[in-house]
User: Fold this.
Amino acid sequence: MSVVTRFAPSPTGELHLGSAYSARVAWQRAREAGGRFLVRIEDTDIRRCRREYETAMLEDLRWLGLDWDGEVRRQSDHFADYGRVLDELDGRGLIYPCFCTRADIAREIAAASSAPHGAPHGPDGPLYPGTCRHLSNEERQRRVADGVEFCMRLDAARAAEQAGPYAFVDETQGRIEGQPLLMGDFVIARKDTPTSYHLAVTVDDHLQGVTLVTRGEDLLPSTHVHGLLQKLLGYAAPQYAHHRLLTDPTGRRFAKRDKDLTIRALREAGKTPQEVFALIDAFPVSA
Ligand code: GLU
Assistant:
């Protein structure tokens, strides 16, 4: 089977050294295998993503020589694909509307924290307490009719039951048993867009025939829920290579706030692509 990798940036800032490193990992793995390297723009967070950043990122990738195969897929052009999958999950009773505001959730969590077992935690902090999972259909319809904003959440326990056990393979860590409840009832469609990162990534990796997902190790917890969705939807699971994150000498990972270490800034300072890669190779990776 031919190798298909992808680099999937969110256009919320300029390409920085950390993301260029990640792009090169995906590019290199495809090129050394004679496979395909895809670029996908993950712009589902419409408030934070900007078209100017997308254009600049693609231009920087081209300048770095990280040429991609085929068309760039922009997620905001494909809401209908995610909508079809949401409908399927809905038909199987696996998702529900959640009307909670951040403040409602914080209040519930604070109340649960004083209970004997406390509020359950996931990798990003306390999990959604499940408040809206218990609403009746009538109550849901009433709130929708009243115009109360809502997102959609996956009923993780029910999904786990339907999916059964699953596992995924990370190149470094080997076979990892899927933990379907790791992120609780996570958001599967946001209030402002009819999808979420987890849904769009899973659907796109499947539709684009991605066989090897290379991405930062900070996203390893997400792989547990992507595996759950793949199992539920009957998708083949790609192989994973979670890589270390590039950090500055103090151990802090690069982020879009590091304005002087964007590829754009380095280009403007007169660096060549080779010098930028040499700089990347000189930085440490997370322990
Ligand atoms: N869009 C994600 C990010 O910019 C990457 C998602 C992925 O590689 O799965 O962090």
Q: What stands out?
A: The chain has ten helices and twelve strands.
